[in-house]
Predict the 3D structure of the following.
Amino acid sequence: MQLSRVVVSWSGPSVKGLAVNVLHFAGDGAPPDPAAIKTAYAAIGSILPGDVRVTIPNSGEVIEDTTGTLLSVWTGTGGGVVTGGLTQTAAAGVGACASWKTGGIINGRTLRGRTFLCPLATSSYETDGTLSPTAVTGVTSFITAMMASGPLAVWHRPTTNGGSDGNSYGVIAGSVRDRAAYLSSRRD
């Protein structure tokens, strides 16, 4: 199956390092809808610091899901920038996580995906470190809008360089956990 890749970039003083969300959409049909993806990110604009800019592109790559081979590019219209709406600072390195569930089984496990939304404004957290009700509502709205934006998918990369055992499955549900999330890296 073909997958259309959308690389959404985050920038601004509150963003630490290279920050991107890599989204995949089933690409055998129409290309992704950048305007609908921008609408999904706008749902979290009210919980982002004002110095954060989330850029949704109007083009991207189309890959083959078993190998990851680049096949072509897709283009669309309506992307652009979503700017945070709060004058507050951000809690460095933490945010929220949208979890994606598929019906696919790979190596005896359900294929799942995650989209980290980081950073969030400090008012997005309760005093015990959990997400505020406003933040949970915003991320839930993001999840709903993202699922409505097109055939969202989770890609499982090939297990070896040059392998052909990759796969992808469509997202059937999304959720947010009521706690702060962070993405660690081997490069930290």
In short: The helical segments are 34-42, 133-148. Residues 2-176 form one domain. DSSP finds two helices and ten strands in the chain. The chain has one domain: 2-176.
